[in-house]
UniProtKB/TrEMBL annotation:
SUPFAM superfamilies: Phospholipase D/nuclease. One of its GO terms (biological process) is phosphorus metabolic process. Transmembrane segments: none annotated. CDD domains: PLDc_Nuc_like_unchar1_2. This is Nuclease. It comes from the Bacteria. Signal peptide: none annotated. GO terms for molecular function: catalytic activity. Residues 494-526 form the PLD phosphodiesterase domain. Gene3D superfamilies: Endonuclease Chain A. InterPro entries: PLD-like_dom (IPR025202), PLipase_D/transphosphatidylase (IPR001736).
Length: 622
């Protein structure tokens, strides 16, 4: 639940957001703070926090950037007490390793200081300005109703490779870039600490419904595109509760249609698993699903796991990905009907790969399915392929994407997204249309495909080309050249860098907030050519906020690196300023736009979480 923190005046506020992986804090003061050179951000165990005290509490968060006047250089590597944060929002990336279930309060301490030539800065809390505090918050995957919060859960990994931490963890390979071969070996080892850190919760979440089926005597029905992770494969091999449709990948260099999945496929067949091989002839059509559904002992549908994560070491660890578990018989029943239709389509093709994705399957997928999603006002499931023909005609908009585009174009305040390569037309075109219709719309997105992103970048470097905030869509990139204490980074260990397929619309609006997830690549091509699933969830602020944190976490990480690649260290890498001028963009002159990211987060301060039942909602004032 997101509530405003203790406020020292009408506009000073602080608010924290979280998902299962990261906590984000945003704050503001009534006006610019003279002499403030940044903020010390301190994490306090919630049961020990005293929000009425002005004393320093808890522990300062780690920091990277240092002051340019520091004799040791602008290298950071300390904490926010020595290298304060010169922003009004920040992420706690280190909370993940702490005690599960623990809650925290964040103390925001304005810092002042003196700077003498040849000496390290002497920083102290800014006199006359009291610290402010966030509300208690912890990492949280559950976003269902109060009586059953785990009935709707979402999970994100740490699959960003372009980090300084990873660069220092791996030996150097070609051209000084971290060795990708070493990375691939380590992330395939279930016991490796690097694999565990990058995969996060996903390594346990993906097989969780299989574990549940075995414990309770139920069954699982899955449809997978890629399967090559040894640990995940072990959860499938010999599993008598499992009914699996396993598709294939295509190697364009060798023409091989099953290089990646062949070992796991053979092991599954030999172990007696009920497996249906759904084999496409080339890469033009793919069985792109990654879902698993659970039924009870009587084969009654119970729950579905869906999302963007392929069951591979790179899917777990070397790409940004998400997975969601929805405990709803309504949702599970639609996925079971789709699974059954995929099986029927495969059997009736009689081994002819060109006969797959028949007219009957395509016709059946042309209708939306209204589903009950726990804690949400409304849910809609779409499946593909769902066009009358297999061509990729741009003149025809598939029914599922027409629904998605319409929602984006009706956005009131924000459109956020992550995608691999949605093709064209796609959500990017819809976002551009929405921006034209509503110039004040806050649009942020990041893609693996640089060309798609390049078509949409609107003067990213300035960030304020018009009185209204321009939309920004960026490609993923890393640090390509070492500078200062920064080392070269590894951008990818495969084709994808960002592999999420996410759209978030108006995340803080109880009525219009929408989350769009699944395996779908979010463009017309996928609906024409792929087996895909898409789940649209409306009216759950808690869920939408969690996805917004993930999207902007990924976006913010790659945005700075994109600027660095475009403009170099001269315009991008400046270290911390030893004065208060850095605040000016947050407190602009009258008539000038403020910082759009900060405004985006702070608009949630008084939002009522739509997922809370009426009994837990604050009563309206008379």
């Amino acid at each position: 639940m997101h509530l405003p923190c203790k406020e020292t005046n009408m506009t000073t506020k602080c608010i924290a957001f979280s998902n299962n992986d990261v906590i984000l804090i945003a704050w503001t003061f009534v006006e610019k703070l003279p002499g403030c050179v940044g903020f010390d951000i301190r994490r306090i165990a919630a049961d020990k926090a005293n929000t009425s005290s002005h004393e320093l509490q808890g522990d300062s968060l780690p920091a990277m950037a240092g002051f340019t006047s520091d004799p040791d250089g602008a290298q950071g590597g300390q904490t926010t007490a020595q290298s304060p944060i010169q922003k009004f929002f920040w992420k706690d990336l280190f909370v993940k390793g702490l005690t599960p279930g623990q809650t925290f309060v964040y103390q925001i301490v304005p810092m002042g200081g003196t700077f003498a030539p040849g000496a390290r800065p002497n920083l102290t809390p800014l006199p006359g300005v009291n610290p402010i505090f966030s509300q208690p918050i912890g990492l949280n995957a559950n976003h269902g109703p109060a009586e059953a919060p785990a009935s709707l859960a979402c999970y994100f990994n740490r699959g960003i490779l372009a980090t300084q931490a990873l660069s220092r963890e791996l030996p150097s390979g070609r051209n000084g870039t971290p060795a990708s071969g070493t990375l691939l070996k380590r992330i395939a080892n279930p016991n490796d600490s690097l694999r565990k850190a990058l995969a996060g919760d996903l390594v346990n979440v993906l097989p969780s419904l299989l574990v549940e089926a075995k414990a309770k005597g139920g069954r699982c029905y899955g449809a997978l595109y890629e399967l090559s992770d040894p640990q995940l494969e072990a959860s499938l091999v010999g599993n008598k509760q499992l009914h699996l449709i396993l598709s294939n990948t295509f190697d364009s260099k060798t023409g091989d249609i099953d290089t990646e999945n062949a070992p796991a496929r053979e092991a599954l067949h030999q172990s007696g698993v009920d497996i249906i091989d759904r084999m496409f002839p080339d890469g033009n059509h793919i069985g792109h699903n990654k879902f698993m559904l659970l039924t009870d002992a009587n084969n009654g549908p119970l729950a579905v796991l869906t999302g963007s994560t392929n069951w591979t070491p790179t899917g777990l660890c070397a790409q940004t990905n998400n997975s969601m578990i929805v405990r709803s018989s309504s949702v599970a029943n639609q996925y079971l009907e789709y699974w059954t239709a995929l099986k029927k389509d495969t059997v009736e093709a009689q081994g002819d790969p060109h006969a797959l994705q028949s007219k009957a399957l395509r016709t059946a997928n042309q209708q939306p399915h209204s589903v009950d999603v726990p804690g949400a006002r409304k849910g809609t499931a779409w499946f593909s392929p769902n066009t009358a023909q297999k061509s990729k005609a741009k003149s025809v908009t598939p029914v599922d994407m027409a629904d998605v585009y319409a929602r984006i174009e009706k956005a009131n305040s924000a459109v956020l997204f992550l995608a691999y390569d949605p093709g064209q037309p796609s959500i990017i075109d819809a976002a551009a249309s929405a921006q034209v219709a509503n110039p004040k719309l806050f649009i942020r997105g990041a893609l693996t495909n640089a060309v798609r992103a390049g078509n949409f970048v609107i003067d990213l470097h300035d960030n304020h080309t018009t009185p209204d905030d321009p939309a920004q869509v960026i490609p993923a990139t890393g640090v390509n050249d070492a500078f200062g204490t920064w080392e070269k980074e590894l951008l990818s260990a495969g084709h994808a860098v960002i592999h999420d397929k996410i759209v978030v619309i108006d995340p803080f609006d109880p009525e219009s907030c929408t989350v769009i997830v699944g395996s779908h690549n979010l463009g017309n091509k996928a609906s024409f050519t792929n087996d895909e699933n898409l789940l649209i969830i409306e009216g759950n602020v808690s869920l939408a906020s969690a996805y917004a944190v993930h999207v902007l976490d990924v976006y913010d990480h790659y945005r700075w690196r994109y600027l660095l690649a475009q403009h170099g260290t001269k315009d991008t890498w400046q270290g911390l300023q030893d004065n208060d001028a850095w605040q000016d963009k947050y407190f602009p002159a009258a008539g000038k736009p403020g910082n759009p990211e900060l405004a985006f987060w702070l608009q949630a301060a008084n939002t009522l979480p739509a997922h809370l039942p009426a009994s837990r909602r604050p009563k309206a004032k008379a």
